[in-house]
Amino acid sequence: MKYEIQVLKMGECQVPGPEVYWMTAWDTWEVLYFWMVVIRGGGKTVIINTGPPADLTALNEAWSNAIDSRSQMVRQESERPTIALAGIGITPADVDYVLITPLQAYATGNIPLFTNATICISRRGWIEDFHAPSYEMHIPRKLRIPDDVLSYLDIQAPEKLRLLDDEDEILPGIGAFWTGVHHRSSMAFVIESAPGKVIASDCFFKYRNIEEKIPLGIMESLEECVRAHARIRKESDFLLPLYDPLVPKRLERVVKSEG
């Protein structure tokens, strides 16, 4: 199965350069765009990540305290998920699968909107980033899985949750493998498109991380980073870093961009 891919911007922020490029770019700030990836084919509609919560106050307060007052999520009204999806003729009810990477509020914040979707999350991440972390998480649980999202996944619709193995197939032509690196719940999603294999992940923020072999700055394991980046470099025809503003231009043969 070959899929069509589109990207929708859910917001943006600025971070210090070393968060993106390990041990370098000390005096720079990097702009991150938060992409929702829309995948369609074979009668199925799949998205990667749901965008940040409706209220950004808690998220921005935490980022301001942890990083700098300049590090704030900024979102236009047109970048809210229901509005952005409507612009390409999709309602939340049309979505069959929601793929999450990582378990952070900017990715999980709107999961309850997608009432007909199977929600796919790393099994390892569900345990190590949520239920039984092996060390104290630096991000509070409510900024990883907001209360309404947790209620939806654990109480209202637990049958919608699908925990992915470290190597898994979601649909024919859409696979997943665990990467770690950024978070315990970070995954790479592999999508077959007509021009070739696209790999989307948060284990690299920008193209330079893979192409110039610069490890991700904000990571939990350098070993995982080297291993995951080498695999992605080997197996992908096209890269889709989930935060790089260059995605639409670089993937214009594969990705249709809106927003």
CATH topology, by name, is Metallo-beta-lactamase, Chain A
What's the order of the H and E elements?
A: EHEEHHEHEHHEEEEEHHEHE
DSSP, total strands: 12
Q: By CATH's scheme, which homologous superfamily applies?
A: Ribonuclease Z/Hydroxyacylglutathione hydrolase-like
Spatial sequence of strands, sheet with the most strands = 6-5-4-3-2-1-12
Seen as an oligomer or otherwise, the chain set is single chain
- Count every helix, treating DSSP H or I runs of 4 or more residues as helices: 9
Low-confidence stretches: none
Task: Give the structural class.
Answer: alpha/beta
| Tally of separate domains | 1
Mean pLDDT over the residues:
96
Distance between the termini: 27 Å
> Level of helix content?
25-40%
At a glance:
This protein is of the alpha/beta class and 259 residues long. The protein has helices at residues 17-20, 57-66, 81-86, 105-108, 123-131, 147-156, 207-211, 222-235, 247-250, and strands at 4-16, 29-41, 44-48, 97-99, 118-122, 161-164, 167-171, 174-178, 187-193, 196-201, 238-241, 255-258.
